Amino acid sequence: MNEMDLLKMVMHKLAKIEAATIKRDDLDELNECLFDQQENLKQIQDTLQELKVNLDIRHIENMNSDDVLLRSILDNQSLQYK
Fold first, then answer.
1. I need a labelling partner for 73 at 20 to 30 A (CA). Which of 4, 15, 20, 56 fits?
2. How far are the Cα atoms of 12, 13, 20, 62 from residue 17, in angstroms, in the given order?
């Protein structure tokens, strides 16, 4: 094995190491992106839960309002028939 072959072999090994390092860096970046997306999804879930609670409260308020209105109408009608 002459110096040229040895140099080619070393360069080839360095290229493999560099490719593996690039892949690892890409994975680190991908992990960071996935972590960010996980945090974003948690925030979205929290916001949706808050919205659901607010909608449930509004629904109950509307049902109570409808009930009061219906009772008022029925009371007025019962007074008319007396």
1. 56
2. 9, 6, 5, 67
pTM over 0.70: no
Q: Which residue has the tokens 């690039």?
A: 22
CA distances, 8 to each of 2, 11, 13, 15 (Å): 10, 5, 9, 10
What tokens were used for 31?
């992990």
Whole-number Å distance between alpha carbons of 70 and 38: 47
Radius of gyration of the chain (CA): 35
Residue 18 neighbours by CB distance under 10 Å: 10
Q: Which pair of tokens denotes residue 42?
A: 């948690």
Average pLDDT over residues 62-78: 85
